[in-house]
Design a protein that fits this description.
The chain is globular. The longest helix has 18 residues. The chain has 6 helices and 8 strands, in the order ααββααβββββαβα. By secondary structure, it is α+β, with helices and mostly antiparallel strands. A hairpin with a 3-residue loop joins strand 6 and strand 7. The relative contact order is 0.20.
Length: 158
């Protein structure tokens, strides 16, 4: 299973690279940071590379980009600018109601092509599809945190 997930992440990197129009382009800083913690175990309340919860993961990644996020997913949902699902771009935060309470209870980072990285309580840091039946039915919305400048600097392949 881990090999399949690593292959998927590698495929995303190749896909991002091809999307820039140059086969020699490198991965974005955002993708690099996500890849550096890929597979890290889930830990409730976790905010370090020894274990992350969902909002600890997003906060860690954005901190590496020089951007401060709130600590919990519901507070992160109050940051940034709302963006429609059809307008998602790499680096947008995607939010879900996974607790059944009707409120935001989970967050991930959109990577492009319908995929997002997040801290899964059962599998740690991984990539999933927004179109999977589980996440599609629990999607709440998305927020754009990166400005045009920070998007060009951190989310576009170099």
């Amino acid at each position: 299973m881990r090999k399949a997930v690593i292959a998927a992440a590698t495929s995303l990197t190749v896909l991002f690279t091809m999307g820039t129009g140059s086969a020699l382009a490198g991965e974005s800083t955002l993708t690099s940071v996500v890849n550096s913690v890929y597979g890290t175990p889930y830990k409730y309340g976790g905010v370090t590379t020894t274990g992350f919860d969902c909002s600890g993961f997003t906060r860690y990644v954005f901190k590496k980009l020089g951007i401060d996020l709130a600590r919990v997913s519901s507070a992160q949902y109050k940051q940034g600018t709302a963006v429609s699902k059809s307008q998602l771009q790499a680096g947008d935060l995607v939010f879900f109601n996974t607790s059944g309470t009707g409120r935001v209870s989970h967050v991930g980072i959109y990577l492009g092509d319908g995929e997002f990285a997040h801290a899964s309580s059962s599998n740690g840091i991984k990539v999933d599809s927004l179109d999977s039946s589980y996440y599609k039915n629990r999607y709440v919305g998305a927020k754009r945190i990166l400005s045009k400048y920070t998007y060009a600097k951190y989310a576009v392949e170099s």
